[in-house]
């Protein structure tokens, strides 16, 4: 089978790396650093006060979420273009699962957008936050399947280490989300495992960026 031309893949790899960087930075900041410091489980009034005192940051977090979703759809299209010629079935499947994830996360943002109007109703505010969390858990089921498919396709581009880490990430997402949906009391016990997806996806982001920056001759040989 003839090799694909190296030049078109280099911009695609650079795009994948940069889009992954946007996804990681926006996702970690909005979901982890920002909302994690404003939401206090089982303390509705304290949560309402904290959000009310930081409304501009709350809205900026929603904007970061939107940027993350847009980058997620874009990187899905990049991966579809990168892998479709070699993986005629798996590439569209991965794209479909990634789109499903993005759609569910976008829908789950709507309750968070209502939060500023619920500051005087702390219990309703906490229900909106819980609905968003539920949507995120459902979205990560789709993303977990996407990770498993991507691991198979990425094995063509790189050694086994990062694809295996991505398999682990997919299993963590699936286990964490299914536990949150089926046995929510056990969900907190799996929180430390989410460090694996963060490390794996950061490493994958850096791999794409560095691969795109390699000298053209080296990239040609690797292709």
Automatic annotation (TrEMBL):
Lineage per the UniProt record: Bacteria, Pseudomonadati, Pseudomonadota, Alphaproteobacteria, Rhodobacterales
Protein name: DUF4386 domain-containing protein
Keywords assigned: Membrane, Transmembrane, Transmembrane helix
Cross-referenced InterPro entries: DUF4386 (IPR025495)
Membrane spanning residue stretches: 12-30, 62-83, 95-114, 134-154, 161-182, 194-213
Pfam families tied to this protein: DUF4386 (PF14329)
Organism of derivation: Pseudodonghicola xiamenensis
Top-level taxon of the source organism: Bacteria
């Amino acid at each position: 089978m003839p090799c694909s031309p190296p030049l078109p893949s280099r911009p695609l790899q650079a795009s994948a790396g940069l889009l992954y960087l946007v996804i990681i930075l926006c996702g970690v900041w909005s979901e982890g650093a920002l909302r994690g410091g404003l939401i206090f489980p089982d303390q509705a009034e304290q949560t309402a006060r904290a959000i009310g005192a930081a409304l501009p940051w709350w809205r900026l977090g929603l904007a970061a979420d939107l940027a993350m979703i847009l980058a997620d759809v874009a990187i899905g299209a990049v991966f579809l273009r990168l892998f479709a010629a070699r993986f005629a079935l798996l590439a569209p499947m991965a794209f479909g699962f990634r789109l499903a994830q993005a759609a569910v996360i976008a829908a789950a943002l709507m309750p968070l957008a209502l939060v500023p109007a619920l500051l005087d109703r702390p219990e309703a505010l906490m229900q909106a936050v819980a609905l968003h969390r539920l949507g995120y858990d459902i979205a990560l089921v789709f993303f977990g399947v996407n990770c498993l498919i991507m691991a198979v396709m990425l094995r063509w581009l790189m050694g086994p280490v990062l694809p295996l880490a991505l398999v682990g990430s997919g299993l963590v997402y699936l286990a964490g989300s299914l536990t949150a949906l089926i046995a929510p009391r056990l969900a907190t016990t799996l929180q430390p495992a989410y460090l694996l997806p963060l490390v794996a996806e950061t490493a994958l982001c850096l791999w794409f960026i560095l691969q795109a920056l390699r000298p053209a001759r080296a990239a040609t040989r690797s292709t």
